[in-house]
Amino acid sequence: MAEMTTSRLEAFSDGVIAIIVTIMVLELRAPAQPTLAALWKVAPVFLSYGLSFLVVAIMWVNHHHLIHAVREVTARLLWSNLYLLFWMSLVPFVTDFLGKNYREPMAVALYGLDLTLCSSAFYLLRIILLEQDHHDSGLSEYHASIQRKNAFSGALYLLSVPLAYLSIYASFFIFALIPAMYFFPENKLAAGHVN
Amino acid sequence: MAEMTTSRLEAFSDGVIAIIVTIMVLELRAPAQPTLAALWKVAPVFLSYGLSFLVVAIMWVNHHHLIHAVREVTARLLWSNLYLLFWMSLVPFVTDFLGKNYREPMAVALYGLDLTLCSSAFYLLRIILLEQDHHDSGLSEYHASIQRKNAFSGALYLLSVPLAYLSIYASFFIFALIPAMYFFPENKLAAGHVN
Amino acid sequence: MAEMTTSRLEAFSDGVIAIIVTIMVLELRAPAQPTLAALWKVAPVFLSYGLSFLVVAIMWVNHHHLIHAVREVTARLLWSNLYLLFWMSLVPFVTDFLGKNYREPMAVALYGLDLTLCSSAFYLLRIILLEQDHHDSGLSEYHASIQRKNAFSGALYLLSVPLAYLSIYASFFIFALIPAMYFFPENKLAAGHVN
Amino acid sequence: MAEMTTSRLEAFSDGVIAIIVTIMVLELRAPAQPTLAALWKVAPVFLSYGLSFLVVAIMWVNHHHLIHAVREVTARLLWSNLYLLFWMSLVPFVTDFLGKNYREPMAVALYGLDLTLCSSAFYLLRIILLEQDHHDSGLSEYHASIQRKNAFSGALYLLSVPLAYLSIYASFFIFALIPAMYFFPENKLAAGHVN
């Protein structure tokens, strides 16, 4: 009775993700003076925007692949999804904080922490998904492989939190590494599906 | 001629709710200084954001269950839905006010008042729905049970308004109690529907 | 080849309208001090928000009825629709200006002007629609009746522009009258369609 | 397994584009004083908003036509689309910067640069599309013709960047010319498709 369909869950999540990715640009305040120096000051905010756009875009693609495999929207899945959207909704906040304080360990650590929590939500969602499908072993193997990758990137994000207090560059390296890691295999994987 | 479908009503409502839940994060202004003290000041704004995210998410789930049971989008239903969206659209405003003035009875009372009005809109929507379906007694019993729960939480929210002037903690207790009340049974209910 | 469907046009328009109606609340800045006097100052901004919410909601309902009758998305219809969305997208701006300067003729006139332009766009859209359907005379009569009502409310909005310089109250009376005029007959009309 | 459908890609892109086009209005800050002089100061911001609304609306129409011709959402197409959305998401930023500094070469050049990058993304998307469809020669001819037009307008936008340092009026002429160029043929083209 009134069970939610996956398409409805997907449409709502897409709406929230589309807004998250777009409102971040509101924090890119145009400098009042048209000098290179003024624009230069916006550069870190711009770079953190670009990074977060990429991170959220990857999450959107992963979210789509994940939800597409769901057969039944149970309450646990629904609330785990809202748990994910909550941490994703904080991305504009930690991005803005990072853009304004990119040399401060705390801002770098907070950014890493929010992405760790997003990763944890993805991990949780896939556990629920894997419990639903215990039949199709090919599919399970595929999800288990993604889950390992998810656990690995979540662990790296978690590592970036204390690391920021030793060297912010190490944390930035992690922030750059994970999108690269997701971006390329996804590419290969999807290419493998074309034919 | 040009009657609205429930899916259209749902899509528009979902769009508005997705925006409401996401723009609240714009009020979480990143502190300019990266100190723990500066972050600490944002904590009440963050907590009120978290509470409102949960409240709006629960409303979204309830709204879905409600609209899913609708057979015909009459003008009364359409305008009652817009009445609900109006009060929901004020959640970011009262959340921001609460986050900035969390120790002030007025801010707490205003937050409770807006949620009372949202509850009243849900109550109204379900009355209209119950009038549409007078055949299926099993369904009616189900809706009547939700309606009682709705009336109870609406009354508690209403109580939180004057209570804030006696003790803001009593009002906060109500704000925490109602999501818990909705969250757990929904969980059980949906679990019962899985198979 | 790649003709747009009405459902796509509707979905995009709905998205824009949902955002328009929701971002207006961002202009309701929560007062920093929790005093009745501070809240009272927000009252005109709140009232202009409420009025615009109602006006945009009515436009949304009318837009739905209009687009639902469209059989073919021609380029003229597409661009007329974007012309409507442009003037609608300015509603948050004129609403904010009105809320901050509700006693000033210019702010009242500007609000009336934007609504006049929105009305002109609806008029244009329905002309294009009527040209498409010259067969079904019953439908044409129905649209011609709505078109007259549209012309009447457009003329009233146009009148509110110079009138604001004589008496802002006369303009406010028009702003209150038109939603009432649309709201009630729509109600009756839809009620007539229920069975 | 979990390939994305074109309708999903389109819905997400539409969501992002609808938000882009609408949040720009948030940068139209209502002047606090209701004088003609104060409104006049907002005029350049308003004009740059109007221009960007038109540019983004044209991109939306073109994007629809492009995606509609896609048969398979490959990873390359998906990421090229996100590349387009990234540069489109910066339109509100460059629009605001232009509105505040419309007499400054740098602001004009930056606006032209972002539109150049958007054009490059459209060019890339169509290359991927053309590689997918090598059968239907009529369709290919149609796309090749649009692609030439796209290359031409992209080259003009690129030209507007250095030109702004010679004469901002020359760049503004390009900004006005390209929408006109897209607007009219699109009109003719679509009209030719009606029957």
Give structural notes:
The structure is a homotetramer of 195-residue chains. The first copy, chain A, has helices spanning 6-23, 36-68, 75-89, 91-100, 105-132, 137-166, 168-194. By secondary structure, chain A is mostly helical. The interface between A and B is large, with 36 and 41 residues.
List the helices and strands and how they pair.
The structure is a homotetramer of 195-residue chains.
Chain A: H1 6-23, H2 36-68, H3 75-89, H4 91-100, H5 105-132, H6 137-166, H7 168-194
What brief labels describe this structure?
homotetramer; 195 residues; mainly alpha; 7 helices; 83% helix; 0% strand; globular; disordered C terminus
Along the chain, the helix and strand elements of chain A come as HHHHHHH
Biggest interface: chains and residue counts? A-B, 36 and 41 residues
Rounded Rg of chain A: 18 Å
The averaged pLDDT of chain A comes out at 86
Number of separate strands of chain A: 0
- Percent strand of chain A: under 5%
Oligomer: homotetramer
Biggest sheet details of chain A: none
Poorly predicted parts of chain A? 186-195
Categorize the overall geometry of chain A.
globular
Distance between the termini of chain A: 39 Å
The total of helices of chain A stands at 7
- What is the SS-derived class of chain A? mainly alpha
- Secondary structure: helix percent of chain A: over 70%
